[in-house]
Design goal:
This protein is of the alpha/beta class and 514 residues long. It has 17 helices and ten strands. It has helices at residues 6-15, 23-42, 50-71, 77-84, 88-92, 97-116, 124-148, 150-159, 170-180, 254-261, 272-276, 281-287, 335-340, 386-413, 462-467, 471-477, 487-494; strands at residues 208-215, 242-248, 291-296, 309-312, 347-352, 419-426, 431-432, 438-439, 453-460, 482-483. The strands form two sheets. It has an eight-stranded mixed β-sheet, with helices on both faces. A two-stranded antiparallel sheet has the order 7-8.
Length: 514
């Protein structure tokens, strides 16, 4: 409680600063929190479990303490899901000597003491009596403290509930239980089929080739297309793209946002368990006879592409563009070959970027794209200056600009044969030190705008614009408010799929009337 909760108490002090009127409450809060931890542990620590439980709690809490203290992140169930689905190279970006010190001092050393100490068991009756006395004591002290300062605690629980998210270990224990129970809370055990009636109408005489790029950790306000003072989109600005400026993510982590944006459920109805047992946008396109391909240079599709053709591009055996890591541009190497091998039917391709995945932003781009200097060559962002972090992050955006320009060039090369289009949207944003917060993954209700406001860009070939898209009308809509909820219906509209689950009012594109 004393050494593993720096983030918890620092956030408490922002709301209740040290002054005469708050000191008694702050001391009381430490007592109540300590009683609560003792109460939790007293329920699971017995003769044969006390050492294993305490060692596990100490070790895990040392990791939790490091990430909360260093990045001000919260270990919610979504963050746990994201961590478990992260690959080794991404996890390695988080390793540092500071983490080693945290684990050594807060985890290993006290765990070694627990391991060596002799635990004396006084017999069942004596232990039961002592345990009951302990539980009653901490409950009485805890509740007594709350009742004695009822006005403070009433405000604390009612207006500052988010502060509990930083409590170590209680909140990550709660989140772990919540995550582990997901499979038991599924509404259905059989995959729910949607869009079986999907088809391409006979009136659609042109084949569509649509590439959707799922960005990673890109912020809306770091694209010069959206008014950023730095030129981070020197190539896209000359490609005739349309940038939507008021788009919001479904979640603040990849594990939530990626499944959500392909789901028929909007953010208000989205649930990971429900999405896992319901077909998504890719399935509906497959029902319509569309050729669907998912290429991944990130950790995974988070289950979205499990039922369609997919390929992992994080290995040099597959990706021809690898140096310190495999680059997003490598996913384009064999795309023309894929298009040529499918002479019949529309084509929908998803490219899942590594993008701006943090905290090692300096790894996310080749050296040639290091335009803004000095850069932060560390995964310990708090050790770098704000200028260095901004420069490094912006260089990675600059590489995404290059990558998207290459996607457009490939689509333009195929324009004579297809109505070609590109849709780019990021999964979520990123905190770069604003308010002492780094990375992403905060619960949506308290997450800052930087983690939720995302870029979204369209490009259309001349044939597409002439035959299907009312460009002038679309340009007027780019300032409208949209979210990941619109992606499902917009893609169905782009591919002109006739299906009952399509909602024209959710389509971001105005189509030319037939």
């Amino acid at each position: 409680m004393l050494f593993g909760n720096m983030a918890f108490f620092s956030n408490i002090l922002e709301v209740y600063p040290v002054k005469a009127g708050n000191i008694l409450f702050l001391l009381s809060l430490g007592v109540v929190f300590g009683c609560f931890i003792v109460f939790l542990l007293s329920l699971v620590c017995f003769k044969y479990t006390i050492k294993p439980v305490l060692i596990v709690v100490l070790m895990v809490s040392s990791f939790a303490s490091y990430f909360m203290d260093s990045y001000n992140v919260i270990l919610s169930d979504d963050m746990i899901a994201n961590a478990l689905q992260t690959n080794f190279s991404e996890s390695a970006d988080l390793l540092s000597w500071k983490l080693v010190l945290y684990v050594l001092l807060l985890g290993v050393l006290p765990s070694f003491y627990v391991y060596r100490v002799q635990v004396i068991n006084a017999g069942f009756k004596s232990e039961l009596g002592a345990r009951l006395k302990l539980i009653v004591s901490v409950v009485v002290i805890g509740f007594g403290s709350v009742l004695a300062l009822g006005d403070f605690y009433s405000s604390f629980f009612r207006e500052h509930k988010q502060l509990r998210f930083y409590a170590n270990p209680s909140y990550y224990v709660y989140s772990s239980v919540k995550y582990s129970l997901r499979d038991f809370n599924r509404e259905e055990s059989v995959l729910k089929v949607i869009g079986e009636d999907a088809s391409i109408p006979p009136a659609d005489v042109h084949r569509e080739l649509v590439v959707m790029v799922v960005g990673e950790t890109a912020r809306y306000d770091r694209f010069s297309l959206n008014g950023y003072s730095r030129e981070t989109n020197p190539l896209l600005k000359d490609k005739g793209v349309l940038s939507y400026t008021n788009v919001w993510s479904c979640g603040t982590s990849t594990a939530v946002s990626v499944p959500c944006m392909f789901s028929t459920y909007g953010r208000s109805d989205f649930d990971g368990d429900k999405a896992d047992v319901t077909e998504n946008l890719l399935d509906v396109l497959r029902h319509a006879g569309v050729n669907v391909l998912w290429l991944d240079n990130n950790s995974s599709s988070k289950g979205v592409a499990d039922r369609v053709e997919n390929q992992d591009y994080r290995s040099s055996s597959v990706n021809p563009d690898c140096d310190v890591e495999c680059r997003d541009a490598g996913m384009l190497a064999r795309l023309q070959e894929y298009v040529d091998q499918h002479p019949v039917g529309d084509i929908f391709i998803v490219l899942h970027q590594m993008g701006n995945h943090g905290p090692a932003y300096y790894k996310r781009y080749p050296k040639a794209f290091e335009r803004f200097t000095p850069v932060c060559r560390s995964n310990q962002l708090e050790s770098c200056s704000r200028e260095e972090i901004d420069n490094t992050y912006d260089n990675a955006i600059l590489y995404t600009d290059y990558f998207l320009s290459k996607v457009i060039e490939l689509l333009d090369d195929n324009a004579p044969e297809f109505e070609s289009a590109m849709l780019y949207v990021s999964d979520h944003g990123e905190s770069l030190g604003e308010g002492g917060i780094y990375l992403h993954g905060l619960p949506y209700m308290i997450a800052p705008e930087e983690q939720k406001h995302v870029p979204l860009i369209f490009w259309f070939s001349d044939l597409y614009a002439l035959d299907d898209v009312d460009l002038e009308s679309v340009k007027l809509k780019t300032a409208g408010k949209y979210s990941h909820d619109n992606i499902f219906h917009t893609v169905l509209g782009l591919l002109e799929v006739d299906v009952s689950v399509y909602d024209a009012s959710m389509d971001m594109i105005d189509h030319v009337a037939e």
